[in-house]
Predict the 3D structure of the following.
Amino acid sequence: MYLELFKLQELPFRLSPDPAFLYLSKHHARAKAYMESTIWFTDGFVVITGEVGSGKTTLIETFLGELEKDVTVAQINQTQVSATEFLQSVLAQFGFKPFKMKKAELLNTLNNFLIEQYAAGRKVMLIVDEAQNLTDKVLEEIRLLSGVETTKEKVLRIILAGQPELNEKLDSQNLRQLVQRVRLRFHLTPLSKADTRGYVEHRLEVAGSHGRKIFADDTFPVIYRYTGGVPRLINTLCDTAMMTAYANDKDAVGMAEVLHTVEELQWPEYSARTNSFVAPTGMAEQTDSRPRPERRAPPLLHVSEEPVARILLAHEGQSTLEMALYAGKRVIIGRTEDNDLPIDSKFISRHHCQIIPSTRSCVIEDLNSTNGIYIKAKRVRKHNLNDGDVVLIGKHELMYIDERAKARQDAEPIEVSTAAGDEPPQMDESEEEVKEKGKQAKSGG
């Protein structure tokens, strides 16, 4: 990649949540303080919402990394589950093996565990990310858990984090009792124009820039104009702009690189965007009929270009979709809806891996996923894809088809020898003629 050219130790704009890169804007610092308040108050129940890519998960990971050892945590990220499955997931996080328990046994085990932890002087916390996907029945179970108490105080602290749809769900008449238990609610807004610049420079500094100016001063207003201060969009734009500069052998990113990147991504100004997601060319309709939250990620593929490759997604031997890959248009694969290629599976991480196509090659890279990616039964961190490669991702398979390889094969002329004395080859010999020539060769004739 471009690390050597820019003299950096690590990639500054990864999409995977990394607490080391956390930039605390005023709003992010306030959201973090609200999370921390759950430790101070025995009835701590906090709801944090924000748009896709606003930094909620990074805040959670940072918060978890700073907890004292006397806090026991259950962190739930897979939220498209039934009430029973949710309770099983919570107990599994606490170290139990609850998958054969009935609901009454699950609740009894969980209540006893909470009381025991309190008696031992330990705090217990439940953190649920992507909480907008929880059903009303699961949210009702959370309300009941929040009411578990001793004679003096409640024993479970709770943080719910999710997209804005979570607020709409909580404000419904069905969940009014749950909302009464919530101590604090906070909506995480995008970064300001000044914070956008601070965010970019902070991540570059953490990656090893040591104060060197990599992005020109006049690029920051443009970055803000096209990303709206949404951290994930900033990461996408800045990373792609650095790749553009790298392709041009430039060790700094100027206005030309940023504008070229915006054109490649086909991004309108952030203020002009709708909330709908434009599916990439070739993406098949999802077979899952469950209602899905509206996707707000911008289109990442330039449909007017010729694809350099395709990927076929299969599960249990059945092909489920096909997607075209375009040079310069990175594709993020993961479990949640904000990915370019979402795969709804508990074996897939939130942001599992990415494919980075260029005019010369396509690279697949693991994004610190739990289960990794495998090629020919070997776990790989990064791999240059070759035509026909099959990548195992959780329980799914990705087949890589290189359109350039196919084009080269189609373009190769058939070589015909025209040297003196050579006879032109017979292109369409019958089976009998071939056998007869073979007999003549063996007999010397």
Confidence is low (pLDDT under 50) at residues 274-304, 414-435. The radius of gyration is 27 Å.
